[in-house]
Structure formats: structure tokens, C-alpha cells
Amino acid sequence: MKLPHASRRDFLKWSAGLAVTVPHIWVSPFSWAESPNERLNVAAIGVGGRGTDIGRQAAQLGNMVACADVHRLNAENFAKPYEGRCAVYKDYREILDRKDVDAVTIGTPDHWHVKISIDAMKAGKDVYCEKPLTLTIQESQLICEAVRRTGRVFQVGTQQRSEFNSMFLKAVVMARSGRLGKKLRAISSVGQATSGGPFPTSEPPEYLDWDFWLGQAPKVPFCENRIGWNFRWWFEYSGGQVTDWGVHHTDIAIWALGGEDTGPIEVTPVSFEFPLGRELMLETLLGKRRWEDLPVAYNVAKTFECDMVLPNGNVVKLLSGPNELIIQGELGRIRVNRGSLTGRPIEELTEADKKWLDEEVRKLYRGKEPGSHMRNFFECVKDRSLPISDVFTHCNAVNACHMANIAMLLNRKVKWDPEKYQFVDDEEANTLTKRKQREPYTITL
Predict the structure, then answer these.
(1) Spatial CA neighbour of 377 closest among 160, 109, 101, 103
(2) pLDDT tens across 384-404, in order?
(3) Among 351, 329, 381, 307, which residue's Cα sits nearest to residue 152?
(4) Model confidence over 215-257: pLDDT tens digits?
């Protein structure tokens, strides 16, 4: 099914019209001292590690009324602090059936993000979903269309857009201001993936619904190394470090270099290492081999390097090096990660420059005050505005990471048409934009 291209600019026009025709439920300024009756009712879906983190953040700003996880112990542990006020479910659809739930957080493994998000929006819920939002480029197209159709507020959990003392926002402002030069290059350096295996299989524990956990992914025997943190190292459920950490710095890089409305139009692989071999993974992803026949071992790219060209000619290099984002032009170079923002253009800022930079950061942050990514979501739910990590720019960033994986699997340059939402004259690459989904867990709009 071909869907129309959904850009952030289209959504801004559409949502502006919506604001005129649909009355706001909340009319008073946002307040952190609201009574329980005035606070949003929220629910958390997927409450292992990171899912618990974002659920707890949401509970500080709203009333946590329910949680769901196919891992029963995760759900029970998450609900304990709320002393009976947080109902526990295995099936997230029971949460979506509740009329008293205003918004949900989603912290499941990546391969569940889009289905649960679309189901939630169709049920009238606003959504905060962890990154990377999608498993495939096709899922990016589907989730953008779902946001357009439903008009729900959707925040993606790329918290570098809000937090860490605004260092990433300042880097974006510096790059977009021209102070580093007109032609820019960025190095999105995000660390290596984990390799390992073969691992033993076993019967799943009684507290885990293994078939439900697998969802759309291939039916395979239970392996403890497939769940928890380690789901990231399997193409069945993720894109590896390329998408997991890659989308954090690459999202900021593409924003800083002026490509947020399209993503890259060309991606070239430079180097890579696939633990099970590139050819084996390519043939499996193309449907020429069965997933069930793969060794029970981590299979995503361990090391990687790709060059991404944006429509304006600026270039982002995504690689598995030390954790940092470097942006440079003919006039200067800056470096940022979650610990620091450095470089001569930063060190030479005057007091007047710093005041200018702070003002520009607030403009970049769409008129709100940065500092808390979850708070930005709640504020946008209440005034029905576009969150700072909107679904459209995020999908352009995560698609860049998907393109990097595709280019490496094919071992050649790929060209992307952002208007047609497909690769240019490349049947194999376009086949890799989607996956066969297992019934009954298919994604439907």
C-alpha cells in the first residue's frame, strides 16, 4: 500500500487548522501543582529497563493508573510503588480499552513500537514512545500516516532534544546559524554493538508469554539472550547499535545540518562487520533463507561506517567510534556528547553571544522551556502542539540509520527519493524497507 509522504511542515499546517476547530480540554496554564483530578491519567506499556524509566517519569506528572507487559514480573514490579492504584495487565489492548487513560508511554522492544503506537492512537490516546521508533522504513511511513489521521500528540524518546543542559540544542543552533561555515560535515560516533553466541535455547519461563513477546517477528525457540537489554543485537527485533544509539546523535546531526525534513538522499557504506556474515544476513532479510535456520547468535553489525549526503550537500558520517558528535565547517568545529560541549567557537562566545544563543535555543525549542523531555510531552498534550521530538523528523532520522544498514548489507551506495519514500531504481534495497509480519501481530492502520 502506497501512502502519501508526511512531512513535519504538512503536519504543522494541519495541526494549526485543528487548533481552530477543536476546543482544548485544558484551558489553564500548565501547572505542576495540579490536583489528582486535573492531572492526566497515564499508563505504561512495556516496563522492562527503559520502559520503567519513562513510566516513572510520566507518573511524576500524571496519575499512573495501569501498566502492561508480557513479562509478568516486570509489570508487577513496576506497579508496586503505586500501592494498588496501578492495574496490571499482560495484554496492552486492555489498557487501550479503558476510557480513563489519556496517554501512554511505550517502552517495549523496537519491533513492537509501531503496532502498539498505532493501536493506541486509534484508541484516542496520546503517545510517548521510546526510540528507535521503527523497525523498518515501511513502519516509518505507517506511523507518520497514523499521526496525521488521528491527530494525536506523539513524542519520540530522543531526549537529547530536551535535556543534558541544552548542549545538543546549542550545537544545533551554532551549526544552523552559519557560525561554523556554509558547508558542514558531522561525525555521528555511537559505539560498537555486542557480538556473541551461539546461545542455548530452552523453554520460556512461566511468567513470560513468549509468543506475544515475539509478536510480528519469526517464531523461534526461547533464548534468554533475546530478551531484556540484548534484544538490540538481533535484526529480528532491532537495527543494532546503528539504530539504537545511532539515531540519538544522527538525529541531532541531521537537524543541525538542515536535513530534518527529508533525511539523506544518498548513503554509502565505508566499512562494516557482521558477526554471521553480510551475505547470510542479506539473504535472510531478502526472504531467501529462513530466520529459524540462522545460528542462535547476535547478528547485527558490530562495527560500521557510512556516509550520508543530505539534499543541501552536507554530509553525516555514522560510525562505531567513541561516543560523540562532531560538527565542522570551514569556519570552526564543535564537539558534543552528554557530558560536554566544546570547541573554539564555543570557547570564544562573548556574554552577548551567550545571551543570543540562549534565546535561539528557546526559539528552536518551539517556544517552550527545555529541560525535561517528558514534561515537553505533557505540555504538548495539554496545548495540542507539536512535541520537540515529533514523529516526522524522527522518522527521517531513523530512516537514515535503516538506510545505513541497508547500504552495508548490499555493500553499495543507495539513493533515496524522500517524496516517493523509496530507493531509486533499486529493487533489492526497496525489498529491505519492509519485513514479513507474523500473524496475528501484523500492523494495520
Answers:
(1) 103
(2) 999 999 999 999 999 999 999
(3) 381
(4) 999 999 999 999 999 999 999 999 999 999 999 999 999 999 9
Alpha carbon distance 410, 393 (integer Å): 26
pLDDT of residue 38: 85
Proportion of the chain above pLDDT 90, given as a percent: 91
Helix (H) or strand (E) holding 317: strand 315-319
Return the H-helix or E-strand segment holding 357. Answer: helix 351-364
pLDDT score recorded for residue 14: 40
Please give the Cα distance from 224 to 200 (Å, whole number): 8
Print burial letters for 81-91: b (CB count within 10 Å at least 16), e (below 16): eeeeebbbbbe
Closest C-alpha to 325, from 229, 249, 388: 249
Rounded to whole angstroms, the Cα distance separating 390 from 154 reads: 6
Amino acid symbol at 15: S
Give pLDDT, residue 3.
Answer: 47
Spatial separation of the C-alpha atoms in residues 387 and 154, rounded to whole Å: 7
Cell of 13: 499546517
DSSP codes joined into one string, 378-400: HHHHHHT---TT-HHHHHHHHHH
Residues 6 or more apart in contact with residue 164 via CB below 8 angstroms:
338
SS (H, E, C) the chain: CCCCCCCHHHHHHHHHHHHHHCCCCCCCCCCCCCCCCCCCEEEEECCCHHHHHHHHHHHHHCEEEEEECCEHHHHHHHHHHHCCCCEEECCHHHHHCCCCCCEEEECCCHHHHHHHHHHHHHCCCEEEECCCCCCCHHHHHHHHHHHHHHCCCEEECCHHHCCHHHHHHHHHHHHHCCCCCCCCEEEEECCCCCCCCCCCCECCCCCECHHHHHCCCCCCCECHHHCHHHHHHCCCCCCCHHHHCHHHHHHHHHHHCCCCCCCCCEEEEEEEECCCCHHHHHHHHCCCCCHHHCCCCCCCCCEEEEEEECCCCCEEEEECCCCEEEEEECCEEEEECCCCEECHHHHCCCHHHHHHHHHHHHHHCCCCCCCCHHHHHHHHHHHCCCCCCCHHHHHHHHHHHHHHHHHHHHCCCEEEECCCCEECCCHHHHHCCCCCCCCCCCCCC
